[in-house]
Amino acid sequence: MADKNQYQAFLRAKVAGAIADARAASNLTHSGVKGSVLEILISKLFRPLLPSDIGVGTGQIIEQHRGIMSTQMDIILYDKSIVPPISFDQSTGIFPIEAVLYTIEVKTTLNATELSIAHDSAKLLTEFRYLPGLKNVDGSERHHSIEKVRSVVFALNSDLSGNKLTEAERYEKIYKGKGEAAHIRAICVASREYWYDNGEYWVAFDSVDDFDEILGFIGGVTNTYKSVAASRHNPLLGHYIVPEGSAKLGPKTRED
What we know:
Blueprint: H1 6-26, H2 33-49, E1 55-62, E2 73-78, E3 86-87, E4 92-96, E5 100-110, H3 112-126, E6 134-135, E7 141-142, E8 150-158, H4 167-177, E9 184-189, E10 193-197, E11 202-204, H5 212-230, H6 238-241
Parallel strand pairs: 1-4, 5-8, 8-9
Antiparallel strand pairs: 1-2, 2-5, 3-4, 6-7, 9-10, 10-11
Helix pairs in contact: 1-2, 3-4
């Protein structure tokens, strides 16, 4: 199937170049392979192909209520206009949970063990608490519905062989074996398949031409990130900054 337009053709060319570079890096044997692959995917795939209002970084996610932090996340997609991260460099930082829209666990070769680890990491994020982003008329915080972080997996290759099992079917065995729901919302394996959770079923995105599955994955993110961000509204950054118990009452400033 031919590209619909030059916009899509340009994206496909960018994807092809990024995946070729990432796969070449993944074949190296030195200890920095994972970091090199992440740098390539961030700089050549996700940052240039995603809308400019999506921040792309790597690091840990923090929750204000208990101060707990996630494990190191490979790629974090965030909205800095909600609550900005603390950045150590152009990509690395600590990201408040309220600003995080997606996490992407990157695997050079996806296998059952890696998929199970990604599931456990995604489950931990579902337990994070969010600051409310709305207020009642009296100024008190209003609790409201929030769409939590979407955790997804992106792999350059997979150890699945033949046509006996899909990635969605393999993942189903993992989360049902743990007696849990699916905490990973999408799985994309380059040049192979892309599955996403529509809230009730796993849905396969048909791949006809090279990297259709990655275009589908990127498109899925761009079609949903704004609704995730909108559900957070306007949480106050000061909750992260102001030390607890630092306020005390002084003289009146005006008469009633």
